[in-house]
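Bumping my old thread because nobody answered last time. Still need a sequence for this structure:
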């Protein structure tokens, strides 16, 4: 069995997200630690966080997957932007202390013309400055579509970052199905082969979460346009095989498909039905 859920808004607080997910029929969820595009964060009330933690435990939820801001670019060419990204990362991880056992995932960054090698080094530097002996939160690098100068469009780039971080015991990967497909990995006809490759390059023990999205585009398009489950180029059969894959059982699966709440309710039910067939 997997844990399934979607992104929720933190606007009404933490426990409210747990209640919403219960109502939608899921068993995990993701939320943006700050406005995904603006970068502003909402203060988290400790009592509210504790109430959510109690709900997660009582209802046997899987780990939360908090998502860092899209505006955080740890390998920006502009030093002020890089500094701003580092500041967001530090503050986000400080706040994550309120959620023991939760995961924090982020987009590694875009090297904007500096080259992948420089980008990888800057990301590793930022992680080395942030992840200290006191850090407890597992931090996940997200697999990217390889759009523009994005780092993380190949498993090898993620491995390179991990290798350069001292506290690599805290690092994992969030595999986004739309992104890896768009990056060129054939998860439709050879998901086993892709997982074997992931295991060889990164190690399956570092696979901590799945972003479960169909894609609007063909394999290798490098576009990063998510589609509703089963409506895209990955398609329902492949999505079903991925969800049922023995190597992925026990992981949180987060839908980031273009849906409203009712759409998510339906997709969560669809996924759960695959396990009942
Ligand atoms: Fe993401
Ligand atoms: Fe994603
Ligand atoms: Zn995406």
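Sorry it took so long. Here it is:
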């Amino acid at each position: 069995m997997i844990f399934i859920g979607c992104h929720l808004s933190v606007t009404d607080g933490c426990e409210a997200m747990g209640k919403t997910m219960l109502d939608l029929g899921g068993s995990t969820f993701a939320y943006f630690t700050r406005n995904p595009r603006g970068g502003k964060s909402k203060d988290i009330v400790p009592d509210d966080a504790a109430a959510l933690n109690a709900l997660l435990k009582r209802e046997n939820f899987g780990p939360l997957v908090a998502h860092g801001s899209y505006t955080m670019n740890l390998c920006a060419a502009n030093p002020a932007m890089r500094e701003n990204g580092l500041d967001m990362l530090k503050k986000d991880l400080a706040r994550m202390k309120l959620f023991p056992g939760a995961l924090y995932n982020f987009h590694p960054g875009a090297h904007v013309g500096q080259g992948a090698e420089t980008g990888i080094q800057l990301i590793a530097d930022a992680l080395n400055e942030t992840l200290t002996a006191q850090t407890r939160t597992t931090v996940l690098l997200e697999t990217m579509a390889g759009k523009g100068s994005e780092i993380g469009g190949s498993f090898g780039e993620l491995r390179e970052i991990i290798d350069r971080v001292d506290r690599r015991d805290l690092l994992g990967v969030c595999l986004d199905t739309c992104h890896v497909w768009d990056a060129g990995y054939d998860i439709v006809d050879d998901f086993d082969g892709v997982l074997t490759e992931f295991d060889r390059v990164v190690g399956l023990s570092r696979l901590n979460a799945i972003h479960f999205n169909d894609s609007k585009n063909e394999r290798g398009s490098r576009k990063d346009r998510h589609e509703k489950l089963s409506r895209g180029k990955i398609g329902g059969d492949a999505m079903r095989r991925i969800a049922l894959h023995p190597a992925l059982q026990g992981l949180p699966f987060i839908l980031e498909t273009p849906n409203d709440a009712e759409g998510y309710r339906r997709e969560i039910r669809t996924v759960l039905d695959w396990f009942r067939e």
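The radius of gyration is 18 Å. Let me know if any region looks off to you.
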